[in-house]
Specification:
Elements lengths: L5 H4 L4 E5 L4 H13 L5 E7 L3 H12 L5 H7 L3 H8 E6 L11 H10 L2 E4 L10 H20 L6 E5 L10 E3 L21 H17 L4 H18 L5 H15 L7 E6 L1 E3 L17 H8 L5 E3 L8 E3 H16 L10 E5 L9 H14 L22 E3 L2 H25 L5 H25 L3 E3 L2 H9 L4 H6 L9 H17 L2
Parallel strand pairs: 1-2, 1-4, 2-3, 4-5, 5-7, 6-13, 7-11, 8-10, 9-12
């Protein structure tokens, strides 16, 4: 995998990027354009009904704040540069031919594209099953089928998640997932068949429509159905289940002349330093915890010093994607039918203990308090004073405390409401709704709060050694998590960036 230069190897390349309006994809596109302005073309697949709408989404969502360094670099020629290098393409990966209706555009892409980079996916833990399976699973199939018809294709890069492993413990290797193999093995009462899952999903959806379920009822039912199917086969939610099935399809599609790289990031957080520190979009997995802390709502937390939280800044993920993509695209095929799999994770090389996150959250918001909503007649709210949380060593002890102090009082309130003829109906409804939401969040996040796996990154380490970067490129395309100072990152980069994003 010897290369003279990763950046030079990107020159005159044409790349199709799916999921182009997503968090990681924006960073990927920005980095490619910034480090190699002589890229031939980037085709960005954007979910839109037509080319005009795709172009509008490009302007509104893709060329935003994250492009400010690139915009400064090009100055007055920036718009011309983008129009020459970037082509928005209206489509949808949940459909055949990626939902591209323009046959001329399909033919053009298939003739020109060197690499397909699939960043598309839904990431909500409790997404509707129909939405998750169509995007994360069937989307992977459509991307694979489309890429096989690209005449010059050197490689398909598919971005998955490290948590396709389920709730395993110990060292988790960078191995492919076998088609149809459930995580719970012989404990599963059914065989895992993707076609059957599609049929069951469609059947459940049709049943709800036939029964004239409301939109809300349909949404809740499809979310619960996805959770039920995922747990049946050993996965913790519909997100990781449908991503795992997507990997099965991608892995099976690999042929001798069809090179595939699967990148599995852990919990992706804001940028460490590139294009600038602390860029984030959306409130991500651990961010809800920090915001609740800042608002004084996390008074009790399950925190175990043995639990390692595997987070990885987004720019390290993107750099790993670029190096793996270029390294394998320019390597002769070895005839191996297996995809190349890389964990982009920190738990093996730079472990972050969960108890530290509590310290960082408390210390940051003690020194930089958030403001409460302003009272009537006030321009600004008052600083929210937070207290050191009660830390429970196990999830069981935390749940006991939560049920005794939160759930039980609401149950008593509901009983009293019944006795007094529904007199406290409004108060009870609000309290019950909040408790049910908290119980749902605990249910969804519990597998991650108690996760005891360590993501092996031997393949990723080997990639760092085999693609020998000179000092300039090593500084430009860093992806070794050992470069992270966690205290500095959370106190001075991530939490400030999160607060800025939420209150901008």
């Amino acid at each position: 995998m010897e290369l003279i230069s990763v950046v030079e190897s990107l020159e005159h390349q044409t790349i199709l990027v799916t999921g182009a309006t997503g968090f990681l994809a924006k960073l990927f596109v920005e980095k490619l354009l910034r480090v190699q302005p002589n890229l031939k073309q980037l085709y960005l697949l954007i979910r839109a009904p037509n080319s005009a709408a795709a172009a509008q989404r490009l302007d509104n969502e893709v060329s935003g704040e994250v492009f400010r360094v690139l915009r400064t670099k090009h100055g007055g020629t920036y718009n011309t540069f983008i129009s020459e290098k970037v082509t928005p393409v209206a489509g949808d990966i949940s459909l055949e031919n990626l939902g591209i209706n323009d046959s001329n555009m399909i033919n053009k892409i298939r003739k020109e594209v060197d690499v397909v980079a699939n960043f598309a996916g839904v990431t909500k833990f409790d997404e509707r099953y129909d939405v998750a399976i169509r995007t994360n699973t069937m989307g992977a199939r459509h991307v694979s089928e489309f890429s096989k018809k690209c005449e010059k294709l050197k490689l398909l890069l598919h971005v998955s998640t490290a948590y396709v492993c389920g709730e395993k413990s110990g060292l988790i290797l960078e191995n492919p997932i076998r088609m149809g193999e459930p995580l719970n093995g012989t404990k599963s009462p059914e065989l895992l068949d993707i076609e059957v899952e599609m049929t069951l999903m469609s059947g459940r959806l049709n049943e709800l429509k036939a029964n004239q379920a409301s939109q809300k009822e349909e949404m809740i039912a499809m979310k619960e159905f996805g959770l039920e199917r995922a747990r049946l086969f050993g996965w913790q939610n519909s997100y990781v289940f449908t991503k795992a099935m997507g990997e099965m399809i991608i892995s099976k599609s690999k042929g001798h002349d069809h090179k595939i790289v699967i990148l599995r990031p852990a919990i992706v957080t804001s940028t460490l330093k590139d294009p600038f520190p602390g860029w984030i979009e959306g409130v991500r997995t651990i961010d809800g915890f920090f915001l609740a802390f800042g608002k004084g709502k996390s008074r009790c937390i399950a925190g175990n010093s043995q639990i390692i939280v595997d987070v990885i800044p987004a720019d390290l993920v993107v750099n790993a994607a670029i190096v793996a993509m270029v390294g394998h695209a320019h390597q002769p095929s070895d005839g191996d039918d297996r995809p190349f799999i890389y964990h982009s994770a920190s738990s093996a090389k730079a472990p972050l203990h969960g108890i530290k996150l509590i310290d960082y959250g408390y210390n940051y918001f003690s020194k930089n308090p958030m403001l409460s909503p302003p009272s009537k007649g006030e321009s600004f709210g008052k600083p929210i004073r937070i207290s050191s949380p009660i830390i429970f060593p196990t999830m069981t002890s935390f749940l006991i405390f939560f049920y005794v102090t939160c759930v039980f009082p609401v149950k008593v309130m509901l009983l009293l409401n019944t006795v007094f003829g529904n007199y406290f109906h409004d108060i009870c409804s609000i309290a019950e709704r909040k408790i049910n939401l908290l119980l749902r969040m605990i249910e969804l996040y519990k597998p991650y709060a108690t996760f005891k796996g360590i993501f092996d990154d031997s393949n990723t380490e080997r990639l760092r050694m085999e693609v020998r970067l000179d000092e300039a490129e090593a500084n430009m395309l860093y992806f070794d998590p050992k470069c992270i100072n966690w205290e500095d990152y959370f106190m001075n980069v991530h939490i400030p960036g999160l607060v800025k994003y939420v209150f901008k």
